[in-house]
Amino acid sequence: xxxxxxxxxxxxxxxxxxxxxxxxxxxxxxxxxxxxxxxxxxxxxxxxxxxxxxxxxxxxxxxxxxxxxxxxxxxxxxxxxxxxxxxxxxxxxxxxxxxxxxxxxxxxxxxxxxxxxxxxxxxxxxxxxxxxxxxxxxxxxxxxxxxxxxxxxxxxxxxxxxxxxxxxxxxxxxxxxxxxxxxxxxxxxxxxxxxxxxxxxxxxxxxxxxxxxxxxxxxxxxxxxxxxxxxxxxxxxxxxxxxxxxxxxxxxxxxxxxxxxxxxxxxxxxxxxxxxxxxxxxxxxxxxxx
Amino acid sequence: xxxxxxxxxxxxxxxxxxxxxxxxxxxxxxxxxxxxxxxxxxxxxxxxxxxxxxxxxxxxxxxxxxxxxxxxxxxxxxxxxxxxxxxxxxxxxxxxxxxxxxxxxxxxxxxxxxxxxxxxxxxxxxxxxxxxxxxxxxxxxxxxxxxxxxxxxxxxxxxxxxxxxxxxxxxxxxxxxxxxxxxxxxxxxxxxxxxxxxxxxxxxxxxxxxxxxxxxxxxxxxxxxxxxxxxxxxxxxxxxxxxxxxxxxxxxxxxxxxxxxxxxxxxxxxxxxxxxxxxxxxxxxxxxxxxxxxxxxxxxxxxxxxxxxxxxxxxxxxxxxxxxxxxxxxxxxxxxxxxxxxxxxxxxxxxxxxxxxxxxxxxxxxxxxxxxxxxxxxxxx
Lengths: 290, 381
Prior knowledge:
The complex is a heterodimer.
Chain A: E1 10-14, H1 19-31, E2 34-39, E3 47-48, E4 52-55, H2 58-65, E5 69-72, H3 76-89, E6 93-96, H4 103-116, E7 119-121, E8 127-130, E9 134-137, E10 146-153, H5 157-168, E11 173-178, H6 189-198, E12 204-210, H7 215-226, E13 231-236, H8 248-254, H9 260-269, E14 273-274, H10 280-289
Parallel strand pairs in A: 1-2, 1-5, 2-4, 5-6, 6-7, 10-11, 10-12, 12-13, 13-14
Antiparallel strand pairs in A: 3-4, 8-9, 8-11
Helix pairs in contact in A: 2-3, 3-4, 6-7, 7-9
Chain B: H1 5-14, E1 22-25, H2 28-38, E2 42-46, E3 59-62, H3 65-75, E4 79-80, E5 83-84, E6 88-92, E7 98-107, E8 112-118, H4 125-131, E9 136-140, H5 149-159, H6 163-182, E10 185-195, E11 201-203, E12 206-210, H7 219-222, H8 232-239, E13 243-246, E14 251-255, H9 258-270, E15 277-280, H10 287-298, E16 305-312, H11 317-330, E17 337-343, H12 346-355, E18 360-361, H13 364-375
Parallel strand pairs in B: 14-16, 16-17, 17-18
Antiparallel strand pairs in B: 1-6, 2-3, 2-6, 4-5, 7-8, 7-10, 8-9, 10-11, 10-12, 13-15
Helix pairs in contact in B: 2-3, 5-6, 10-11, 11-12
């Protein structure tokens, strides 16, 4: 068992012939992910690395190969359309790695994928990995190991830092999910926490948040009310200057400033372990695994 | 990206919003000439990317052209929150009956643009939100349908009892929404929206923040960027595709990834130091970026030690190592450097650094402690 992806995941890669797409396609294939198709308009009928069939559209790819998951490496101006194309083609999970998608595009895409009943992860995210089974995205496979810890994070390299520390300490992961740092993303902390709570293999969760918004506070409330498994949290940006990313209006709408202090307070109030440094996850998780 | 008030007003005017006539002046004589042309009382308003312009003395009411010249003399060249005023907007002063706040932002929670309107305008809207939240109406918009008239009217009636005013306000909401969407905004505000004693609705101040991710496809909006009003080091960084924010400390940080960059700054603080900046070199492994990053950091005289923290995923740590060697050969460092590298091609990177006389570790906490100690003038632990 695992969360969102496993050895049965059949992946189609949108933008498989591009610079990033081709590089990571090979990495995912080496890791053992079932890459069943690629999509590049105009290159339908060709093969990637002599083995993976390329299609002009996601619909063609799904029809021919039974792909159930898509990962997107197309440039930002085309990413929103690529997400909708995948959702319309009938895959269950769409993972958008692309960074720099205009947020107003996401205001259109989000209701579209919701109505299709499709799970979107990202955009601007490192994707996810179920160690030993499948990797979708760009998380380096060699820093992960199979085990009992669910990892969910808003950032990329900070996730690697924590996962690497856990693996080095002999603590493996059930699934690691990078949900992305954009203001509007398809999957939030609560979606992942609920999935980890339901996953028999996951025994504890490591959660890395950031300043801005109220996602972490809402996650803390969810943890307090609905989770039986222990969760350890971390917030990046305790020293970040206020108001640099979003203007004041962002703070107003949530009724708060989304500061690190406020988020950490909500973690404590939910009875969570709080990591002050990334490396603190090791001892805090170890203690909770018993 | 921030744009100036006069630029935001120009955009809003293009969508039909009623805005008092105004022009930009860069000299007191120009300000006087504009005021003379209007032949009425004017406001002289500093054009800088900073809030609280009024409180800082950057917004003045002027009865006569001579008065406008005098006030412009005082405001031009003034410092507001560290930014020098290079331009003023000279605009016809509106008679103010009542002041309302109208704003629209992209909201994370509802994942939609959300209007915020309040009859308590003109002052700090954050204060209104904190103290009297019932005085603000929030209206989310489904972008697939736009802002329907009934929602626009609902906001109009929240602000005004009079149906004529409510209808006129509703129209302004729809104009503001059209401008917001077409200009790729993450925020657009009219504050205050004024009712004149004659019963006319006028937008006296306007503000827009543009989503940086929109700029490639909106060249006309991108051209509004005023680099003279930004921190020079942040302009250089952006041109090199780096994300950089200057801070007040003395440990210069170069990190890959925003989350890890913030976590690194936090760790500097945790060990008793102070970060000099936020700098994310991003995911690509281009040695050139490292060269630019070092140039920007070493230009800050406050920096007493430089800390590299690189977790190689897509980023190849040997590329970063090569960048460090290239940059420091061209411009030898005057301050100590602490390098932490781990991940992709770590062994090659370590070899490159050692051969060129650098030492590096793979432990983040160890590297941060060392950099903090060096910045304080002490010896490395």
